[in-house]
Each structure stands twice: as C-alpha cells, then as structure tokens.
Write a structure and sequence with these properties.
Layout (H helix, E strand, L loop, with lengths): L2 H18 L5 H28 L4 H22 L1 H9 L7 H14 L5 H8 L5 H22 L1
C-alpha cells in the first residue's frame, strides 16, 4: 500500500470501530463518580462521628473506621452489590478504601471453586498484591529511616 491509501484505510477502520463504540458521556460519568465516592466517604465520616460519640479517639478511632469500611466493602462484594455500584459509579467506587477491599475480595470469590488454598488464598492478592507489597516495603523503609534518625 502506498502512504495515501494506508491513511485512507486507517481512517476507514477507525470510523468502522467508532461506529460500534457508544459515545462517552464524560460529564455524567464524572458526576456519578463524584457522588458515589462522596457518599462512601460520607458513610465513613458517619462511622467516625458515631465512634467518637462512643468514646474512641486517635489511632483507635481511625483503625476502627478503616476496619468498618473494609468490612462493608467486602460484605457488599460478597452479596454482589458492590459490582453493581462500580458498574454505575466507575472510579467513584474504586478510590475509597472500600474499593481496595473489593479488589481483594472479588478474585477470592471468583476462584473459590478451585479450592481454599489454590483458589481463594492464591488469587486473593492478584490485583491488590503489588499494592500490599509496595505498602509494606515502603512502611518498613520509612520505619527504618525514622528509627535511624531517632538514634
């Protein structure tokens, strides 16, 4: 093919592919992500207010709210609700801590039929594994630097 016919072929192919692809509604998608992400954070803030009212503070409060949000994300994933939320909300459901819980629980549920060790336990960290490894490594490095400075 010559350069001119190649460009014509590429343009025709791109037009053909775009005819099957529905147009993206960017404003609607971003608005939904904002609403759902904000709603998840509002739930976390509600947990925080209730636990502060119950007498928790500091690290205990932060840890308890995180555990509650992780539990909520995992529970909703197990019920199949979080996937429907994610389908409609996009990145709004991925960003908060509940999205991380979903990314760990989803593969575990999907591969449960392969057994508890080779299915659930092995596949649980396929998506989230690199994030956990980086987090633990970075935390250990920062702790080591802090310990060296404190000497």
């Amino acid at each position: 093919m010559t350069g001119r016919s190649e460009k014509h072929f590429n343009r025709n192919y791109i037009n053909y592919v775009n005819s099957f692809d529905p147009p993206t509604r960017h404003f609607k998608t971003v608005f939904r992500a904002f609403l759902v992400g904000g709603f998840i954070c509002t739930i976390g803030q509600f947990f925080r207010f209730m636990l502060e009212f119950a007498g928790l503070s500091g690290d205990e409060l932060a840890g308890t709210v995180s555990v509650l949000l992780i539990f909520l994300g995992t529970f909703l994933t197990g019920l199949g609700v979080y996937d429907r939320i994610g389908k409609n909300a996009g990145a709004g459901s991925i960003v908060p801590i509940t999205g991380f819980a979903n990314s760990v629980a989803s593969p575990a549920i999907e591969f449960k039929t392969e057994g508890y060790v080779y299915g659930m336990a092995a596949k649980m960290f396929v998506v989230a594994g690199p994030i956990i490894v980086f987090g633990v490594t970075a935390g250990a490095a920062v702790g080591l630097v802090y310990w060296l400075i404190a000497l």
